Known about the structure:
The chain has four helices and no strands. By secondary structure, the chain is an all-alpha fold. The protein is globular and about 40 Å long.
Amino acid sequence: MAAKISETLLEYVAPLLAHLPPGASLQQQQSFLRGVITAWNALVVVQWGEPDLLPDVYRRLEAMPQPGRATMRAMVDALVERKRRHFADDLRAVGRWESCA
């Protein structure tokens, strides 16, 4: 039986959790998780035959001010590489998600 998608996402993002500041607010945690899910889903839906969403993700990143833009670009690049290298066969997408408050 496959791991729950939540468990898989935690494994997927584990190397990048250090980028989340200690004591991050709920809003920061949700924003971080939203970015992780966006990258994951973009890579999944293209494998379903849907349009490639990654160019749009990168366009939105380009609109961000520095230094956040470079940091976010590096994180998205790392997530893309990690998904392709370690989770390429997992074609589950994340639909609705909620964080614990």
